Amino acid sequence: MYFPVDHVVKDLDYVFLASSNPDKQQRYYEYLPRVLHRYRGFIDGPGWTRATRTAPAPTHRYLYARAKVGINLHIPSSLQWLNELNERTYILAACGIPQVVDAPILLPNRFSADCFYVASSPEEYDDAFRRAITDPDGARRHARQALEEVYAAHTTYHRVDRFITDLTRRLPA
């Protein structure tokens, strides 16, 4: 469902497709104001007060294709424990969009350091976003590396394969 879309004008500085539920809101208030006030972009998802309806999933790759940078923040537990990366991490990578992401603990276990602009604080996040916007060649390199890694190791096929392998190891011989 997610892959790069060619020949789309990058007319938005950022795209952020995410829900706005209570466990995420505090992080949004801390990390996003500088980016949202300085740059032009698009935000959509359940729970945003100004979004009366949300874009259907099949259009997400086209929305992401319009972005110079994808915004990505994780829930607090992803920053405290080695538990998960949100689906946006994989989706943005599969779409070939450079992303600015906070620092979930699992990230270095799944992707190499040159895939994303990673920030551990709101100030670092603002700086990482600025670097991604002002260095399009660097942003393309990050996006390309993430794209290659997500297709090499993080597709649905890879997950099913790992599940079957794990399951067969647990079955009696």
Topology readout:
Blueprint: E1 12-17, H1 22-31, H2 33-38, E2 41-44, H3 60-65, E3 67-72, H4 76-80, H5 87-95, E4 99-101, H6 107-110, E5 117-118, H7 122-134, H8 136-153, H9 156-170
Parallel strand pairs: 1-2, 1-3, 3-4, 4-5
Helix pairs in contact: 5-8
Q: Share of helix among residues?
A: 40-55%
Query: Looking across the biggest beta sheet, what order are the strands in?
Result: 2-1-3-4-5
Corresponding CATH architecture: 3-Layer(aba) Sandwich
The first-level CATH class name: Alpha Beta
Structural write-up:
This protein has about 170 residues and is of the alpha/beta class. The chain has one domain (about 10-170): Glycogen Phosphorylase B (Rossmann fold, 3-Layer(aba) Sandwich), CATH 3.40.50.2000. It is about 50% helix and about 10% strand. It has helices at about 20-30, 35-40, 60-65, 75-80, 85-95, 105-110, 120-135, 135-155, 155-170; strands at about 10-15, 40-45, 65-70, 100, 115-120. Strands 2-1-3-4-5 form a five-stranded parallel beta sheet, sandwiched between helices. Strand 4 (about 100), helix 6 and strand 5 form a beta-alpha-beta unit. Helix 5 crosses helix 8 (about 135-155). It is globular, with a radius of gyration of 17 Å.
